[in-house]
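Please check this chain.
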Amino acid sequence: MQADNEFRRVAPSLTLLRNIPIFNGVADAQLAEIARIARQRKVPRSTIIVRAGEATDALYVLVSGGAKVCNSDAEGREVILTLLGPGEFFGEMGLIDDSPRSADVVAEQPCELLVIAKADFKRCLAADSDIALNIMKSLVRRLRQADRKIESLALMDVYGRVAKLLLDFSELESGVRVIRRKVTKQDMAKMIGASREMVSRVMKDLEIAGYIRVEPGRIVLNAD
């Protein structure tokens, strides 16, 4: 009876974990152990999930919803470092090097999260090389993205930065690049170091020129 109750408790988490890239290739037995130790958490929109400077005590996996990783100065000016969607995770850097949180993570939509405590996360890394490899791949991918962002800020004008951001957000569907992620012009402005008004102007110019097509629920990028 106790075993049946435990299975019913972890079954929802186990189903979620199987669909998250960081756990690709992980054996079912190890996945079941992660499901057992992971804690589910739901937060409403605008919740500050973690704060910069806080001690890093857990890994967070975003199951549903969306969040922004951001920093702000003493005057409240905000820069968005990246946007996170379902299947992505955060908090891993501080768990690896024992440093405090480097940025705020704020829910932009209602979010469902899986939370894995620091000690449990380190045991998972030691026990399963697939998890460690997936973490390393993700860190390398984020480093490359940061390099490209620095390059665009240094070398591109606002038109180029907006165009590159749209391309980064897009996914290939039936041979066409499409953006389905809901991103506000204000968020775009905070990601590329421009004003919301300038982003709106560039988006309008790109649409008039035929480079993008705004449709209900998506933006289509035209290659021609």
About this structure: DSSP finds eight helices and twelve strands in the chain. The mean pLDDT is 89. Residues 148 and 154 are 10 Å apart (CA to CA). The helical segments are 2-18, 28-37, 92-97, 118-127, 129-155, 158-169, 185-192, 196-208.
